[in-house]
Amino acid sequence: MLQLQETTMRRHAQLQPLSRSHHQTLRLARQLKLGQWNLADLRAEKKELYHHFTEEESTFSSLVFGLADTHPIMAQLSRMIFEHIAIMALISCIEHSKPLDNSEQVIALGELLSEHIAFEERELFPTLEQCCLINSTPYELM
Q1: Fewest CB within 10 A of the end CB: N or C in the chain?
Q2: Pseudo-torsion of CA 7, 119, 16, 69, nearest 10°?
């Protein structure tokens, strides 16, 4: 019998609220990919995403202040901001298109959200923890 092992992610305390909000966004991504969404819910999620993106960009800008432009994390932050813009633009396109014309865009949004969260959780957050948060608030289990 295969036994599943529960894994607990250790995440720096400053990143935990951002990481937790990714769970809601992953649910949205899944609903979009399955076609289980409506415009009113998407508009509500757009507001939440905007606040989440603003918080990430503000927090991370202050964390990397003073690092050289050539530091590897700068490319990751540029990717994050580019993806934030692409996500918001795609939501706007979906909002302004006819429901029958946007199924490919909706699926693409679901995929983009999933890929974006995977990038942040697997690459960006660990890099931030290593280079910017190593000597601050201790890690806690999520």
Answers
A1: N
A2: 140
- Show the tokens assigned to 46: 């757009």
Residue 94 tokens read as 């979906």
pTM, 2 dp: 0.85
* Joined tokens for residue 16: 């935990």
Q: 117-131 burial, b for 16+ CB within 10 Å, e for fewer? A: beebbeebbebbbee
Q: Which of 95, 101, 111, 116 is nearest to 38 (CA)?
A: 95
Q: What is the pLDDT of residues 65-102, one digit of tens each?
A: 888 888 889 999 999 999 999 999 999 999 998 776 68
